[in-house]
Design brief:
With 458 residues, the chain is an all-beta fold. It is built from no helices and 39 strands.
């Protein structure tokens, strides 16, 4: 596999030597720990690592430069990984090189002698899926916040349907924020005044099979739903305060069947995501979980709360009487089919570290944590719009260079493993990822949306 060097940000050294006081020890400052990196499995990595040591103010700096360096690299199984370290005479930097053969966190220990001390940092090794070929190029739209496809092959980009990528689009909802959901060959959508249900017959445009007026609610000023779930015969919409249910019946069309207030005026709920989302809907068998963000009464920190709703005999979704709400660590940052991602900040002996959590709906145990990932303060998670639909976390090195990655649950290893996504990176493209597709939108050059296949499990 072709090698690719990883260039770290230059680290400046500053000394604070007093001008009139007697000579004293001055400590080099500004040399932060090498940042955590994201690299590809099987790809040769080259990391520039700075040494650091106290120096006497009236002594030339080069008298204290390291004379030798050694390195150890340990893989996620704690077994050693072959590595080399090269120190250029008279400098404070060593170049560490190794080729990881497995995915997961690798720990690097660099020792400088006789000065420079130990430097330790982590490298996240990701499965490389950047070469996945696109399955569609949707040039009819400049961008898409929502992308999905019916079983019969019609593409949905926000509220536009395209039988083939180059076809003229069919508007199935309002031409603003998307409110579309796909279930097999059924497409649900919303306008400013009604809910619509379409069916993909396999040829031609989608066929409208029913509509129902939107009931009064709290959709915000733009009447954009905060979350939605769909089957072929049911469309659930959560707005800022209410859970609405629409159903389809042969011979009757779409019916606005019921609505249930999911929050009380006495509760304080916080928004999350860049589009001020208040609710995320998840399905687990006959239970619908509504995830919101509240405040911990003891620590006053934001926490995610998942509350179960179940159908009663009249067909209304009501708060469950057999299972209570559950508190999740952190605030929601992504979601998918039966999965919600949260981001928490954990205090350690060295400071505060962001931790990404993956919660999975269990039919018997509610929401259970299935994997977590420490971001070490040097890998950042993008804050994204969450209302358009399923959106999995996107990660990159904090310097803003390098590939875009996403965490994927590996059931065999019972761990989260990073995967590098197709696309040239953050500089010229915007990347999004759902349960079935990942797509990039060009910020420059030829407009269009390049869609790649994606699976949320290996």
């Amino acid at each position: 596999m072709k090698s690719r060097g990883l260039l770290l940000l230059a680290l400046a050294f500053f000394t604070g030597c007093p001008g009139v006081l007697p000579p004293e020890e001055c400590f080099l400052t500004g040399a932060a720990e090498p940042p955590t990196l994201i690299i590809a499995e099987g790809e040769a990595a080259s990391v520039r690592v700075p040494a650091i040591s106290p120096q006497v103010c009236d002594t030339p700096k080069d008298a204290h430069t390291p004379e030798s360096v050694t390195v150890e690299v340990h893989g996620p199984d704690n077994l050693p990984v072959p590595a080399t370290a090269e120190l250029k005479t008279g400098t404070w930097f060593a170049t560490v090189r190794f080729t990881p053969r497995s995915t997961g966190r690798h720990h690097v220990i660099v020792a400088f002698a006789p000065v420079g001390s130990l430097r330790q940092f982590d490298v996240h090794v990701a499965r490389d899926e950047r070469s996945r070929a696109p399955v569609a190029s949707l040039t009819a739209r400049a961008s898409c916040l929502f992308v999905d496809r019916t079983h019969s092959g019609t593409w949905l980009c926000d509220n536009m349907a395209l039988r083939e990528p180059g076809d003229l689009p069919q508007l199935v909802g309002r031409d603003t924020q998307p409110a579309t959901a796909v279930a097999a060959d059924v497409v649900w959508s919303m306008t400013d005044t009604e809910v619509r249900r379409y069916v993909d017959t396999g040829t031609g445009p989608l066929v409208l099979t029913g509509t129902a007026p939107l009931p009064p609610g709290s959709y915000d000023t733009d009447r954009t739903p905060h979350s939605r779930l769909a089957t072929e015969d049911e469309y659930l919409v959560a707005d800022a305060t209410t859970l609405h249910r629409f159903i389809f019946r042969e011979g009757e069309g779409v019916l606005a069947f019921s609505n249930t207030r999911w929050t009380s005026l006495a509760e304080a709920h916080f928004t999350f995501g860049t589009d001020n989302t208040r609710a995320i809907l998840l399905r687990g068998a006959d239970t619908v979980w509504l995830v919101s963000s509240t405040q911990d009464p003891a620590t006053f920190t934001p926490r995610a709360r998942a509350c179960p709703f179940q159908l009663d005999v009249r067909g209304f979704y009501l708060a469950s009487t057999t299972r209570g709400c559950e508190v999740l660590d952190g605030v929601p940052v992504g979601h998918g089919e039966g999965v919600v991602w949260t981001l928490d900040t954990v205090q350690t002996s060295t400071g505060f570290i962001p931790v990404l959590h993956r919660y999975e709906v269990s039919t018997t145990h509610g929401l259970q944590e299935a994997g977590s990932l420490s971001l070490d303060g040097s890998i950042v998670s993008f804050v994204q719009e969450l209302r358009p639909g399923p959106s999995h976390p996107l990660l990159e090195s904090s310097g803003g260079v390098g590939p875009i990655a996403t965490p994927r649950w590996n059931a065999e290893r019972t761990a989260l493993v990073l995967v590098l996504l197709p696309g040239p990176g953050r500089a010229s493209h915007i990347t999004r990822i759902s349960d079935h597709f990942t797509w990039t939108v060009s910020n420059s050059g030829v407009p269009g949306v390049r869609v790649h296949p994606w699976t949320s499990s290996p």
